[in-house]
Amino acid sequence: MRGNLKQAWLWMLPVALLGACGGAPEAALEDGALEEGTQALISAPTLPASGNIADSTTLKGPLSIGGAVAGYPSTLPGYFGYTLQANAGAQLALEVTHLGSSMYLDTGLFLYGPKDASGSHGATLHAQDDDSGYGTLSKVGLVTVPKTGEYLVVVGFVNGVDKQFRLQAACVGGTCLPNPQPAPAGAVLTYVENPLTERLQYTLDTANQVREDATSYLRRLDYQWPYSGEATLTQAAAAVLAQGRYIGYRSDPAPLVLSLPELNDAMYSQFRPLLPVMLETYGNGVETVQVKRYYRTFSTGPNGDNWRSLYVILFPQSYKVLVYEQTAHEI
Fold first, then answer.
1. Where in the sequence is the signal peptide annotated (predicted)?
2. What pTM value is reported for the model?
3. Which member of 9, 38, 123, 136 has the greatest number of CB atoms within 10 A?
């Protein structure tokens, strides 16, 4: 079914394709409309008392990267679980494919893990989708595996009786590629936006309640990297600024490259608890996290001065960019 919210959406971001448009936030722009529908999303499985999401599924066996499995639901609704082995940094595409799946089948797709020493896959949800595939089938176009281990791919369905589906997993970048080549000159990053973790969203929401005249925004953007080496901070920042909502920052004549301690110092005090949570949640602990700051100021009238900073935070081995925007205004 067509869900009311997509969990992720794509932007193709060459700057040359952008039209002229006004700046945010005084004339906010969207980077692409979310697809809407009249029916509800297929929800993730309910977390059982054990804390192991696998206990809310019917385990069906292994799924390999580069392989596919067939599923034959016999209940309404239900969840089938498939184990998948992956190394840290592997970038995967998961899909319930048109080929091999019954017409009008409605699915949801979820990725959990990795399995811990006790044998539990836990409840950490790394990716999910409702209807990004063909018709009402599901597709996660890009997810980066954070740690080496066994993951659980879950297919949910609400009208699966007497139907079948085909689930496939493909390597699209990162450490699962056997022989990646260097990035071509002028390579442009394509971002997929995913929700923040509940912990990070709570930390942000709490900080935003401290002062009426200071508000911050945080977005998580994943990018596909099918090359050797690492994406650069210049590439990451260019792809962020290519989005219409950030057009006002393009006029900064001297953006700054900051260290993490400098970023911490630049954050308003109520927002500083965000930084360690960002690093713990999305970093691998060994990569060199890089930061670039863009600044703008404008006035909306008497006592209407605004000061805004945009921080592009690159996690080059985790294939993620966090966009942190810090704003303040006169009151």
1. 1-27
2. 0.80
3. 136
